[in-house]
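Board notes (copied after class):
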Amino acid sequence: MNWTLYAALSALFAGLTAVLAKIGVSQVPSNLATLVRTVVVVLFATGIVTASGQFHHLRSISGRGWLALVLSGVATGLSWLFYFAALKEGPISGVAPIDKLSFVIAMVLGFLVLEETVRPLTLAGAALIVAGVLLTLPTVQQRLERFLY
């Protein structure tokens, strides 16, 4: 499989995650829901690494790699905690689009930190994502409805 199929599957499962998380967080505190999700992810990832025999690669991770992975784990944990807190309080139709601003943030950070090139059409796509997110916000919708009608 190539990276685009992996990315599409990631999007599919992320969408499914949002719905299942909203259902799961409805009866428990959001931090507890995040813990349960995290334990499942740890067990699932451990099973995959064990089954594929990849544990021996731990020795090949550099100090910089370890630091980046640990910080990525912290960022993931914070993202999940805030995501579940947002789902606990708000609708998926509001939370999920805002969460997708992560693409724009990742693109900007990729440009600034990793010096990746950003093509004009990618910038246009990012602008459309921002516009799409804004259009999903109830306050923006109310203002536009007053303006249009």
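Comment from the instructor: Residues 28 and 56 are 38 Å apart (CA to CA). Residues 100-149 form one domain.
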